[in-house]
Amino acid sequence: MSNVIRVVEISKRFGDIIALDNISLNISSGEIVAVLGENGSGKSTLAKILYGLYTPDRGYIEVNGKQQVFLSPADAKKYGIVMVSQRPQLIDELTVLENISLFLNKPLNKIYNDINIFLQEFNIRINIASPIHTLSYTERQYIEMAKALLARPRLLIVDEATTYLPQSMKIKFFEMMKRIVATNGSIIFITHKIPEALEFSTRIIVLRRGRIVGEFDSNNISLDELRRVMFGETAIIQTTKQAQDIPIIKDAILKINNVLVEDEYGKKAVENVSLDVKQGEIVGVVGIAGNGQRELCETIIGLRKVKKGQILFEGRDITHIPPNKRIAIGLYYIPEDPFRDGVFLNLTVAENIKIFSQRKIERKAFQDIISKLNIIPANPGVKVHKLSGGNVQKVVLSRIFINIPKVIVAYNPTRMLDEYSSRLVASTLTKFASLGGSVLLFSEDLDEALAMGNRIAVMSRGKVIGIYNYTAINRSELEKVMVAYA
Amino acid sequence: MIESILNVFTLSMIFIVLGDIIVERSGIVNLAIDGMVTLAIAISYISILRFGFIQALVVTLVVAVTIALIVSFFINILHASHILTGLSMNIALYGVSVTIGIALGGGKAIRQTTLPSIYVVVYTVVITFMVWYLLYRTKVGAIIRACGFNPRAAETLGVRVWRVRTMALSIGYTLIAIGSYIYTTMYRGAWLPYSGMGSGFLALALAMASSWHPLLASIITILFVYFYTSMYILQLAYGVSAAVINMLPFIVSIAIVILIQITPIKKKLAIPRALGEIYFKEERAV
Amino acid sequence: MLKISIIKRELPLHIIIPLRITIAVIGLLISIVTASLIFNQDPGTTITFLVNSFLDLNIFRYISVFLPTALGLSIAYSAGLWNLGAEGQIVVGAMGATFIALFTPLGTIEYVGVIASLLFAFAMGAIWAIAAIVLKVYFGINEALTTLMMNYIAYYLVDYLVYGPWRGRGVYGYPETDMIPIQCRLQRVAGYSFSLYPLFTSLLLTILVFLFLYRTRIGISIRALSSSFRAVELSGISSTKLAILAFMLSGALAGFAGGTEVLVYHRKLVPGAKIGAGMGYTSIMVAWLSSLNPVAVPLSAYYVSSLYIFSLAIQIGSINVGDAIARAVIGTIFLLTIVSEFIARYRIILRFRG
Description:
A: alpha/beta; Rossmann fold; 6-stranded mixed sheet; C: mainly alpha
């Protein structure tokens, strides 16, 4: 039986959105299959169906020639299917040991030694009796990987978990993956990075809008060809440099002085960070995920308390004023997940815009903004949860057009979006800067930060370890700086 | 001496509070507890009248587990709000308990049993320790707590959240039923319509005051009941009104929770973060 | 083996409304069947009882409590905040009204007494609710549990007063205050125990609450709170202030209901549990029965009030059992409503493996 696992005609919808449309796929033992696709193409949904987190509307999974419908990851695990999640899915309040014990379904004392031996092999020094919340984000990712490998899976699903790991750790992890393959296991490797897919897989499946649009042998396909398949014929992206050097006479509009921030458990998350943004400038903040970017961003928009230091906006001290007051003076925020922090799904488009608007807004203005942003359907009375992801982000962006922002803080604003909507967001931000606005762009996507930023700040372990002019640094140097201290 | 600090009423309340803790540690807001206590008291009363002590305990437990399964059905399968489920269950259960109490019992007294106070002490210590051990030293306990902290992550780790919550409800309601049984047979020895109404919410307050920790919960319950039973003395000696003393556990539990929230103790006593969250597995998440 | 999975869906309004009506009718059928069986009565007679209950003017006595209270609760629930404290807010509202009516000179002035009493009832209800929401927004304490506990504090507070300092001189040992002055009483409809003034006020409030929640920026933002506190804050509106406002309004309306209970029905202060009489808890379900739509609240208040009257009608002979059966039936109807909510929001997929 060479076919370990078959995915047969699987479809999945979320409300009006079709996430997967009749997907079939065979995974033989000893294979590393890369599933490549941009955000919103359905690749994560596929991973979650294989692992039992979602149940497909139609279709099934076949293991050893038998049809299966997994109702829970517990079902999938029974057949040796294990997933490493994009973001570590661990219980913060329980210890490392308890978490792994829950996952492996084995008593604590039986696995204690195994875990320690395993971690030693990886040169990871973590006390496994400490609760997860005391660990850094990267350490949590190690545990997320370790627990999956300890289960000796026959199918390991890796959902974008390696993208932002330090290079050394990545290599070790891929070594372990090869060991699984050598013992007749197989791996599904979900990614949106074409080079990664080419480097580590034996076969590449390309998903677009919930359908398989191509299947290739990794040795017989070029990067450019993959890119064309992934984005469709029409949308070959060109990263045009729109950023310009800013005349230095301009004053800093937003100034962060020596800021110290603690996380929920009293650990230092941001330490001695100083940063400024000038008028008409885009400053990119990059770094490996979990190195304090989120905390710094939330501090600037006012969701977190500053322990020490100062934040100045147009020379005014805003360190201790709440987010809503910061918006009133022109400091706006574009979130990573438009569904969660950007809009109100239970309300209509018009109601959303009405909430965003700082001034009284006329009935006619709703239709204007909808046609200006090309929100589809163009009906102010439709509830936002009926819109697709791209249109939801347009509703988020409407706040920039109906108000008069001075600084926009954006946190991974394109991460959840497809290519078209990403470009809309990017062009909105660059246009805003060219008209004299300022943007502070937190991004896990180096290419995006480099394409848009006038200056790039690199964060590591809660500190800004370098600020570079975009002309003075290239991608590979930046990557080196990012991982050097992580 | 011991009786004045630790009596049968304390023991019954400790069972009810500990049962509530097991349920709420799994992330379920247990508002149906008040109806459950009222029903369990009525059931144990009529089944003692009709059958006998042992049979009565069995009947009460069977009824309690059935109610636990109904609550579980509403919360885990129908994905209903924990609060609405609890409130509706309460209204229905109050009604059912009084209906059957009057129809099948009708106010007759039952032979009251007494429990030597040394047993009260032993049972208190044993049940407190058992619940603590279950929650903090076994895998089942870790799973229950995991569902209360973060059901989504627990599911991803391979826990079937709905099963765990159903189990926690069944275990918890079993303890609540035993507590109610003790209340009827050893403390009250009689039944009136709506006997026990309010005790469940009192237990809810005491559990919250302990931040859902079994050891703390027992201590707080003992202190409160001691206070409550020495009400007479307070009333006679200092002229403190009964209403004021009745008010105390609720004020104190709110005060303790404020104290926990504003001091560093909060970090030590990990409280169930997902309490009351309607967990829907297929939610489209990040 | 059978495998069951549950997914979300959204039913259109033209299916949801008939669904709700069906549930209401099933509820009535259950009432008829239980009442007929237990009292060994001809179903025809029971149906007559039921129809009469829906036509009985006494329902307005209950509507005047349920309507304003549930209206207020629907504001808090629209914001995704759990105010379970309507019972306590009614009780302190009653306390506030009694205080003005009985212990201040205002109570003996015509018109002024009534208005001042009701305003103070409003204020007391609001204060009682604010205490809980402040703990929620500043300390993160579960508002459902605190409001629930504050109900008991309110009960015992009023008990303390009527057994102690406020006990009337002419009540012969009963735990209650003296009657409030005549100037402070609202005129009842002849032969009934309700007054038209609070009813009309409540209907007016229904329209105001609807306009507030669906037409003003503040009101829309209160509804937005149920999606995300953070997103509201990041839209430039203080989520803290909105949450406090939503709770304050819901407490105030419950307090108003409590005030009218004193001015119309009791005309004195009685122990806490007798003022609330569980109506605060029932109002919670009245609010949800209307899907939190203010315009539908009068309908659901009418429906539940009729069931109350029905329960009174069937309890002739054995008072305790009638009351208990009514509770059991009403509880069951609420549980059915929850089931209908499930049907409206989710779909079940059955699959046979292999």
